[in-house]
Write a structure and sequence with these properties.
This protein is mostly beta strands. The chain is 2% helix and 64% strand. It is built from 1 helix and 16 strands. Strands 1, 2, 3, 4, 5, 8, 9, 10, 11, 12, 13, 14, 15 and 16 form a 14-stranded antiparallel sheet that branches. Strand 4 and strand 5 form a beta hairpin. The chain is globular and about 80 Å long. It starts with 29 loop residues before the first strand and ends in a 6-residue tail after the last strand.
């Protein structure tokens, strides 16, 4: 897409925007099983089905899949599970879809690079999870993993009011929760309350400070929900859309120490940091495409948008910021001949930090 993006998507898209289309409803019942196997013990299994259109109005369709692999990099295993379930109602002027889809992943950390010498000697080497045990032997923590689950619930209602008017209304809720777990060798304990150090270690400034070995988890627990809506009018020369959206994100960030070498005064479930963030985002917009002449068409897009942040920040304390934006866009299309077109546009995009 050209320029700073269209208001239909809510916020301005500065890099790109992604449009995902779910399957159209099927007239006849069908099913599919797919299995594949590849290098590094990689397996993918999928089951897909559709009831077809029942009583000329209802369809239920779904898909479940599992993807797992030992990975090319050492210990870079992955285990991914996902599902999709869709219920559809089809009327003379109505299309309603209820969707539930999501996935769960557990992947061993393998995102670090290696130096040139190691690359020559062992290009699959992975130092994630490496530590030295009490006997001086190099070991690798077997659960140095990233773990996350996200579930989406959506309701879409499309209504054709007349040959020229149609409306769209959607509600959505997304739940995400997960953590990554890691072994920290010779970790300074300055930021970990109730941890009793067992040795002296160097911190990032090179100073000797109390420290220990420990295993920590860094968690995300977030909710995202809201609505989008629009009404569309079309005739021979004019295509006009008015709409908007209101969405809210609530996120908790916290850390746990689940093991420390020799001594800890912490209780199971204690958190060594706990932050939250909330973002409310509302917008209204109007868009128009107008065929001025047979060879010239005009495009305009006006959006008003409000963003409100609330968060507690480790560095700056409480954040409570409000932003109001006006985002105008306009353009002209010139059809020079059957093989050549010229497009010119102006857009102003404002975006929150």
């Amino acid at each position: 897409q050209r320029g700073v993006g269209t208001s239909t998507n809510g916020a301005g898209a500065f890099g790109a925007s992604l449009n995902m289309l779910t399957d159209n409803y099927a007239q006849k019942s069908n099913g599919e099983i797919s299995n594949s196997y590849g290098s590094f013990n990689t397996r993918k299994h999928t089951v897909k089905f559709s009831t077809g259109l029942m009583n000329e109005h209802f369809e239920l369709a779904g898909r479940v899949s599992n993807l797992s692999s030992d990975g090319y990099i050492d210990r870079a295993s992955s285990d991914l599970k996902s599902y999709f379930l869709q219920g559809t109602y089809v009327g003379k002027t109505t299309l309603i879809k209820a969707l539930a889809f999501g996935g769960k992943e557990k992947t061993y950390q393998a995102w670090y690079g290696v130096d040139a010498t190691t690359m020559e000697r062992n290009r699959t080497y992975n130092f994630a999870g490496m530590y030295t045990d009490t006997n001086g032997n190099t070991q690798f923590y077997n659960n140095q993993t990233d773990n996350y689950q996200q579930d989406h619930y959506q309701l879409h209602w499309n209504e054709k009011i007349s040959n020229r008017w149609n409306t769209n209304l959607a509600f959505h809720y997304t739940k995400g929760e997960g953590y990554y777990e890691e072994y920290k060798y010779n970790e300074p304990v300055e930021v970990y309350p109730n941890i009793l150090p067992t040795k002296t270690v160097e911190n990032s400034e090179g100073d000797l400070v109390p420290g220990t070995d420990l295993i920590r988890q860094k968690w995300l627990d977030n909710d995202f929900y809201g609505t989008t809506f629009s009404a569309n009018y079309i005739n021979d020369k004019l295509d006009f859309i008015i709409g908007g959206g209101y969405n809210k994100y609530d996120g908790d960030h916290f850390g746990k120490v689940i093991w420390a070498r020799y001594a800890s005064q912490s209780e199971l479930g204690d958190r060594y940091y706990e932050d939250y963030a909330s973002k409310t985002d509302g917008n209204i917009f109007a868009k128009v495409n107008y065929q001025v002449t047979k060879k010239i068409s005009f495009f305009g897009d006006l959006q008003l948008r409000n963003v409100h942040y609330q968060a507690n920040s480790y560095d700056t304390g409480l954040v409570n910021d409000n932003f109001n934006f006006f985002n105008p866009k306009a353009g002209l299309n010139f059809e020079i001949n059957d093989k050549n077109k010229l497009y010119i546009s102006y857009a102003r995009a404002n975006r929150e930090p």
